[in-house]
Amino acid sequence: MHFLSKNDKFLNMLSLISLNLEEAGRFFSESKITNKEDLHVFSKKMKSFERKGDSYVHELIISLNKTFVTPLAREDILELAMKMDDVLDGFEEWSLRVEIYGLTHADEFMVTFVNYLYESSKEIAQAITMLSNKKIANIRENVIKINEYETECDDLLAKCITNLFKIEKDAIKIIKYKELYEMLESVADSCEDVADTLESILMRNA
Predict the structure, then answer these.
(1) Considering only CA atoms, which of 60, 53, 64, 68 is closest in space to residue 19?
(2) With 0-12 CB in 10 A as exposed, 13-18 as middle and 19+ as buried, what is 5?
(3) Of which family is this protein a member (predicted)?
């Protein structure tokens, strides 16, 4: 359960961005794709999450430019918003790519990647909720978990590419799958960037 702060619009805006990201992560992980129509619906829905996130970030930037006093350093607020937006962009870009490739079956490696990314998005949302409720010290555990998921994704990337070159003979399929695996790992890197920004905020404000 997430609660918005009653005290500050910027922390509320960050919460809205993080909750949209978590919802996108849930949809990303729970979508069942069996045909090209499912792919189109999946890609279109992820685009809607991405556009909503962009609108929140745009609103936040406008408010920052009009406000003198902010609850955190304005560069921290902006960086946190932009880093979360990078994660959302990664979700949307991957969904578009699988639609372009017509991939209607996610292998076990992709499923594992997506589950790690959803868990990371949940940790991000929980951390932002803590931040919005001025419980900054409590975000350390979320930061640690996000970093752990990124490490798992690093290891998974090595495993899935090794397996790909071992069992797959179709060069085109190798190119497609390798790119899709690497895109998912890149989203995990973006989640880690959010964690790094949270850790910097923690160090400066704890």
Answers:
(1) 53
(2) middle
(3) Belongs to the UPF0111 family.
SS3 43: helix
pTM over 0.90: yes
Number of H helices, E strands in the chain: 6, 0
pLDDT at residue 196, as a whole number: 97
Name the token pair of 54. 């962009």
| pLDDT tens column, 177-199 | 999 999 999 999 999 999 999 99
Q: What is residue 68's DSSP assignment?
A: S
CA distance 22 to 40: 21
7: which DSSP letter?
S
**Sign of the torsion formed by the C-alpha atoms of 146, 151, 152 and 153:** positive
First to last CA, the chain: 24
CB burial class (10 A; 0-12, 13-18, 19+) of residue 155?
exposed
- Residue 170 and residue 121: Cα distance in Å, rounded? 34
- Which three-class secondary structure state does DSSP give residue 100? helix
Find how far residue 196's CA is from the centre of its chain. Answer: 14
Judge whether 107 and 156 are in contact, CB under 8 Å. no
Distance of alpha carbon 131 from the chain centroid: 18
